[in-house]
Every structure is written in C-alpha cells, then in structure tokens.
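the two lines:
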Amino acid sequence: MSQETLESDAPTSFVAQVRQAMGGNVRQYGMIMALLLLVGLFQVLTDGLFLQPRNVTSLLVQNGYILILAIGMVMVIIAGHIDLSVGSVAAFVGATVAISMQRFDIPWPLAIVLGLVVGVIVGAWQGFWVAYVGIPAFIVTLAGMLLFRGLDLMMLNASSVGVPDGFQVIANGFIPDMGPNTGYHNPTLLLAILLVVLFAVLEVRKRAALRKHAMEVPPLSISIVKLVVIGAAVLAFGLLLASYKGVPVVGLILGLLVAIYTFVTRKTVFGRHIYSVGGNSLAAGLSGVNTKRIDFMVMVNMGLLSGVAGMVFTAYLNAANPKDGVGFELDAIAAVFIGGAAVAGGIGTVSGSMVGGLVMGVLNLGLANLSVDSNFIQIIKGMVLLLAVAFDVRSKLQGRPSFIGMIMSGMNRSSSPLPTEVTPPGPEASAGERPESKVPVGSL
Amino acid sequence: MDNMILSMRGITKEFPGVKALADVTLNVRRGEIHAICGENGAGKSTLMKVLSGIHPFGTYEGQIFFEDQPCEFKGIRESEHAGIVIIHQELALIPELSIVENLFQGNEVAKHGIINWYEAAANATELLARVGLSENPNTKIKNIGIGKQQLVEIAKALAKRVKLLILDEPTAALNDADSMHLLNLLEGLRHKGITSIMISHKLNEIEKISDSITIIRDGKTIETLDVKADGINEDRIIKGMVGRDLDHRFPPHEPTVGDMLLEIKDWSVLHPDDHSRYVVQGASLNIHRGEIVGLAGLMGAGRTELARSIFGQSYGHKISGVLFKDGKALHLKNVSQAIDAGLAYVTEDRKTLGLNLHDTVKASITSAAVRKLRHNGVVDDNLEIVAANKYRRDMKIKAPNVDVGVATLSGGNQQKVVLGKWMFTGPDLLMLDEPTRGIDVGAKFEIYEIINRLADSGRGVLMISSELPELLGMCDRIYTLSEGVITAEVPREKADQETLMRYMTQGKIQRRTVQQ
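prediction for all of em together
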C-alpha cells in the first residue's frame, strides 16, 4: 500500500471530522460534557442560583488552591510518581509566611518570595530522596506528609496566625475596575476578548503550519465550529465574572500558571522528557534523557506549587491555622485522575486536570448550594472518582484511549498521544487488534 | 510408536502476522533426555509454552498426547497437575523467601489452608538430598548461587511429582562445575524414570547427555535424531540447525570501506548484579567507515551487553578497556555523551527499551534529540513535523501521518521509526541490535536497504543478529562472540553458517573469575 492512498484516507462524514477535531477523544469530550451537564443540572436544581456571578466567582476562589496543586501533581503523576505531602507542605509554607509577616514584620511581597523559596527547598529535599536515593515517591512523600505537618504544628503551636490585608489580596482580591461605566467589569471583558483573539490566532497559525508542511488540514468549518464554541464559552464566562467583581486575583494567578505549565509540558525539552520518563523510563534513559534529573525537577516543582497553594489558602482564610491543608493531596490527586492521567505514568495533561478539578469543585459547590449533607458529598465525590477512572479504563480496553487536552488547546501537539482509531493497515483493523495488545513472539 | 510419554502432533501456532510454529511434531520416549535444538527464534520456546499451557488450548492447532491421554491444558496449573513441569531460563524463585518456602510455592504442605511447616521442612530435606543440595532449607534464595537455585527449581518440580521435566537453557547462566553437576543430576533422574526435555545452545552438552534430538528451524520440525544409533556429533547438529539456503533476501551491496571509525581494545564488562561474573571479557573489535560489521553469538553470549557497554556504559559494572573513535580515545560516561559523540544504539527490545508506546510517531522520532527542535529555547512543533516527515519518507514508514500513535504501527514500521529516531541524532556509528526481529520479510528487505544506505553515507554499522543468514547476507566482516569472549573474526568471503556456528558454540577456552 503506498503512502498516497494512506494519506487520502481522511474521514469523510462531518461527524467523523468533528470527532477527529476532538482528537478522537471520547474521554476528554465526555469529561467536558459531564462538567457542562453537572453545571446545567445544578442550575436547574438551584433555580438558577448556581450560575449567579457571585457563586461562579466563589467556585474559582474556593478551588483555586486545589487546582494549583493539581498542576504540579499532574506533572508528578505523568513522571510516574505521586506526592502525598502537598497538603502538609502547603500548611507548612502558609505557616512560615504568616509567622514571617506577623512576628518578624517582613513585608508581604518579600514574604511571598520567602514562601516560594521554602517550597522549592522542600521539593528539593523530597526530590533528592526520590531521584538520587531511589526511594519510591509514595514513601518519601508519606514521610513528608508527617514531617511537614509536624513542623507546621510546632511552628503554629495550636494557634492561628493572622496575615496582613495586602497579603489577603492574592486569594480574596479582585482586579480594580477601570474605564467607562458599562455596568460590567471592563478589564475582565477585555481579558476575555483578548483570550478569544489569542485562540483564533493560534488556530490560524496551526492551520498555516499544517499547510506549510503539506499535512492534512482539517476543513475550515471544523476550525470555525471549534472557535465559535470555545469563544462563546470564554466570553460567557468572562461576562459572568464581569457582572460581579471581575476576575479574582486567584483566578488570574491560576490562569497564568495554567498557561505557563501548559507551555512547559508541551513546548519545552523538559516537558517532553517528563512524558518520556513516565511513559518508558528505560527507553528514555537509553535515549539520553537524564531520568534522575527529571524526577528531581518534577518534585522541586511540586514543592514550589505547594508553596503557592499554601499561601493562597492562608490568604483565603486570612490566617494560617494548624489544620490547614489536611486532605488537599487527595483532592489534587483525584482531580488529576478524573482529568485522564494514567496511574502508571506517561499520560495526563494540565488542562485535563483542571477539568477534573472543576468537576470536583462544581460538585462541592452545587451540592452545598442544595444544602446536601457534607458527609454525603464525600460519598458522591468518591463515586465520581471511581466511575470516571473506570470509564477511562474501559475505553482504553476498547481501544479508545484518552486524548485529554487536544480540544482545550487548539495546538497541534497532542500531549497524551495514545493511538487513536486511525488504522494504517486497513479499515477492518479493529480496536482490539492494536499491536501492543498482542502476545509478543519470541523465545523465553 | 510404542512407549511414548509425549506426542505432539501437527502443532501450528500463529501470532498476528507471524507463524511461529507450522505443523510441528515432537515425540518423546519415556525415560529419555530429549534435546530440542534450533536457532534463536526458531520456535523452541513457543513449542514448550504450547505444551505447558502458557499458550492455552484453543490458541493453537494440533494435538497433544501425554501418556496416551489427549491434553487440553488451559494453563500451567493443569499441565503441572498432569506431571509436566517447565523450568524457565529466568528462574521463577522468590529471592526473599527461603528454600523451603519456594519449594512448595503453589503446592503447599497444608491442611485446610494451614501450612504444616514441620512436615514441609522434612519433605524439603528429602527433596534437596535427591538433587544433591546440602543447604539449610531455611536459607533465603537470594543467598545461594544461581547453580544451587537451579537445583532448587528441579527439587520444586520433584515436589510436584514431575513425570516430564522441561528445562529451558538450564546451563546458560551456570559455570562449568555447576553445569556438570546439573547434567549429572539429569542423568540420575533419567535412571529414576523421569523424562526430560532440554532446550540448549550448548551442543557439547547435548551431545553428551541426550538420547534424542529434535531440530526445529523456522517453526518447523526438521528432523529427530537418535544420538546413540545415528552417531550424532556437533557438526551434524549444526547442519540441521542452519541448513537453509540463502536466496535473494538481501539487496546487493558493494562496500566502500574508509578510515577506522571505532575501535575498542581489551574491553571487559562485569555483570551489574553479579560482580564476580564477566559478561564480556577482553574483547577487541573495530569498525571502519562505510563498513557493516556483524556480531554473531547465541543468546547469552554477551552481544547486547557489549554494545550497551560501549553506548555510554548503559550496561554493566566496572567497564574496562579503551575506546577510540576517529583515532581519539573517548571516555563515555553516560548515554547523553555517547549520543553527542555520534554513537547510536538501536535496541533489540523495541517495546521495553526502544519506544514509549504512548508517543506519536513524530514524538518517537525526535525523542532522542528533542534539543535539536529548540528554537529560541522552545520546542518548535513545525521543526518536529518537518523532521518526522523527512524520516517517514526516507524510511518509508507506513503511517497515515506523523501524529498517529506509534503503537498503531506494525512491528516493521515501528522498527523504522526507531531507526529514524537514531538517524535524527546524527550518528557516525550505529549499533543495530537484532534490527529485523519480529518483522515480516518485506519490511526486512527495506531495513536492509536502509542499513546499506547508512554504510554508503560513510557511517559505520555494527549489526547484531541471531540470524546467521542475515549476517552473511549483509556484513563485510563478522565477529563471533561466545560466553563473553570474541572467538573469531571472519571476513565475508570465508564466512559460512557452519564456521560461524562452530565459533559461536566454542565456549570460553579458559574461564576466569574475579576475586570479590
């Protein structure tokens, strides 16, 4: 069979084209659909309360720190590890920063720098044990969970330490309004419009790149549909926030981190190497990747983001408390797995984890809006995690692996590039016959 | 056919795209030692997997009769219940458990699920005596040598009341004394009426102890020889193993040999875990530009280990010797330095060591040199697509585009992706370890053409292969490796399969062990 015939094997029906634009991704698509369904459901059940601007804003503020943790956690999990200590580390950094401001009168911007530095040091400590001593991350961070909780409790000595107003802005503040009185928050609207423009530019550039390299360019209609959907979503969300107080500062921090880490995981050598190490560390090692260094850096980064999350949470509560951060690690890990990451490593995306985190956040908030008992909320969240991952495992067995992140990005690097249903040899090669599912031939 | 303990008739086993066994017949007489010989990949192990139920009934065609009863084993438990026990080359012992715990693993001396350790210990002592092992049954497996572990495996089989014992390369990892003891033990078991099937590459051992030999080649039974009656010697076995004609399976190639590219002298490598064992010992070889040099050796001879120790010390312990590239001495400490020095190693184990099966074709091709894609510090997706498409074209990789998952490609195309991956690093020397393993004939030819083109472009190629015809068809010079020692350097004109096989099975003339 010649290459030419293969290349012209493009899907013909519109549905197939849409599917391909989604990256053939049942799971990603399913998760976003589930999120939208949940939002719709709560909107109906709460008689329209759920999508009130105020409620949506608090969704962001209340989940910001978990989402920040999930960014670091997904990278740790892609690399094939886990971090159980993030809650304790966040509490430890929060306490350090609060005490530095209250007792030593360190100005809050400097205290933030201190918090970041402490986070990095903690990450380096754990990374050293994981990467260079070869202790499984599960053990290292279980120890870290106890260790940093202990330090946190010792420093706080069973009391709360308040933080100054300036510091509280990072969790509870909003961008100040400016410009003419439109009845909306102007900077937020501007931001939303800029985002839509950015997506459009990226899509155009992607199409140009495909054309330049003589690759198959999806029909214009697909791109337009994609842009309209994404654009409408962004604008609607922006409008929603703009009709209250605008984008909260924590939303801005989160958005910035998501952008930075999406870029890092997709567009840098370091990001590529994380996927290589997690996907097959032996092959990565034989390809010249310094696997220990990658493991180390991933843990350092997790420490840094734990620090950020710890400070955001402290600011959110206006004080550092002894019980801060308990159970954060579980929420962050759940977000990552609902977002399509693989337990064995090698698969996962920042954007997927954000969707996963939002599913949990929407459940929390929506059920709380409905005055559901918080114990029962736990049960529901547990079931959602179980079912989401079960769905993932099922679809992988059926050869419909997840392609998390394709749709969110509009970029051309698929970051969880498992095989799609594109079948090189012939149309009849069904999912069950994919090569890696076969028993290898060979002698013992 | 009287007094046959085992009769396998018309066994055909297909893997997707490959016919591993085609109409194989194996008849084993009661109370004999029956050897199965064949090149790597001939189908010996597959046949034993069919017999022991690892490939369950229904996944193969043909019939198996054991003690005149038709067998339909669905798993290893059923075959063991019938009295067939297989001892794999990789021993199935648990290092952290004691001898006695291992002996009765899955076969515990128990009543109502509660283990009687006193009875177990008593039985263990008796079993160990039968295999001539005077070791405390409470010793942990990890604390006894590999030779004794092999004996424990046999004792474990005896505990299961074995009637037919299958040994896959039992002496491959043993030293001479341990090998001798094992072979004597097998003879002793024969006197007690236990039938053995032995897969081995060590022809001298086979000649010495076996009663019959069945030779398998390319998944077919070639012949069954009666050692005593037919007066069989090693040469006769070799002839059966390799007797295959070299047709037009290789593209014609005229080498243009240039300057010396890579040379190693007195290269020795110790086993990474067992620091008393040489995996490669005193090896010297050289490769010129434009030259395809073969490295022949049977499984366990140290071919892969040699190549990987050269490739930035990615295998082995205390590597000694000197390495010159283009006349300059190099000390390559890690893979990244080896890649920078222009070396590439294409692994024999594509799926575990060569590819990240989650990756797309383009990400696989660029994975060993992502740095080359950097543009202002950012990985440039466009550069990646350009590079990946270049190799898709050059290597004729059959994929709809470079965005598809590499796992969706056939074995041959995956191999081309791996070759492309290493070409992208811009190497001078490529070490190709079994470059055509598990690939169909058509794709093999294309890979041969690629290899020839690499040599013609002034690069050097070191080609490791278990298939002698492939080495004879492709290489300008062939080194033979046996038990870690280079036993010969054979120029193309003088090379034939019998000569190579002789050097490959010659063994170490003198075995030296290092003092710990």
